[in-house]
Specification:
Length: 258
Amino acid sequence: MADRHLSLVLHDVAPETWYDYADFVARVDALARQYGPIPITWLVVPDFHHRSDCRRNGSFLEHLQHRHAMGDELALHGYYHCDDAPSPRTPRDWFMRRLYTWEGEFYALDQHEAARRLDKGIALFRSQGWPLTGFVAPAWLMSQGARQALAQRDFRYTSDPQHLYTLPDFTRIDAPGLVWSARSAWRRGLSRLVSETQRWRARQAPLLRLGLHPVDMRHASVQAYWLEILERLILEGRQPITKYDWVARQRQREQHAA
């Protein structure tokens, strides 16, 4: 039981989404007073959709500093979190960039542009004294050029919906995640069914990730679901941990085994 963990991950963290999470995080902090520390991994977007530049919002940066001081992890989540590359030219790219998502920022970038955006994000983190831990591409999509640029920087891990990847070699580690699509009633109903099925299948997984988005917080039933699942997993014996701390533990175990 002690080897089973959970990570609570908040996506799309930016000045304009901060208050979507405020009530939920206060409730998580209340659970922490009852059960012990519940560290959160915050996926920070430096300039969400080109309209929410966090460098210009001192109170937002102070909030993140406070959460980091509490033991939370701050990870880089793209730079703009929107696909502003030239229009897709192939049917596959059109499907991925227009039907699957409009927010796959790093899906179509070449290595040079991906490196430029990564470096801008790194500069923000260093200016605030935040350690470089993880990079998560918006919609978990990266081009080959983006992967090459990422491997040349100092991040420790990246991820997709079901795995973590240690960097720079992209070694894959199974780490199933639960995530909802909450934009419509039918999507919320289906997401509950899918999430419960995935949770049952992952009941023995060493790490289970809960991936929340701002839109989840705008529906009381979805927010209540995440709080219920978080508490249930803790009562089942899962220990809350940030993504980076879990990756670091795996590396330590590998080194001891060697």
